[in-house]
Amino acid sequence: MSDQSPATAHDDANGWNARIIAEVRANAGYAAWSSEADFAAGRPIPPRIPGLYDGHPGMPLILVHHTGAKTGRERISPLFYLPVGDNWAVFATHGGSPHHPAWYRNLMANPHISVETGTETVSAVARLTEGAEREQIWAEEIALVPKFAEFETAADRQIPVVVLERVPENQVCT
What we know:
By secondary structure, this protein is α+β, with helices and mostly antiparallel strands. Helix content is 33%, strand content 27%.
């Protein structure tokens, strides 16, 4: 239980997000997601994954620009991802919460997005995976980050797997 007011907790989350976004941009797609302060604050953080860093100052992340389902305001979420061809799979674990993260609800309501990856920004469309496709991508992710299986068990819900598909440059998102 946190002894912070909801406003303070919201400000802390915004400050964390701003720090991660700045770090991702400064380091061409990488950020030191887990810090001792984050662990101490109880933030559910993916563990360091051997082989993912290749000498970079953190873990690879994308910045997903999306529109709030309720507010209509632009949001930016730094997300861990699994490459799927030239696209990205993201996982709505919400740290094992029984509720979906806000970014997931936003993507389902407004699937036309943009993705900052490394030093480029591309248009994309979010698509919820199902069946064999979802199972194959989820199995790859669990092999890489076993903690995500624990999140699914704790959440007592199937974790949504969303593929962010690049929109060809000559196509316009509508």
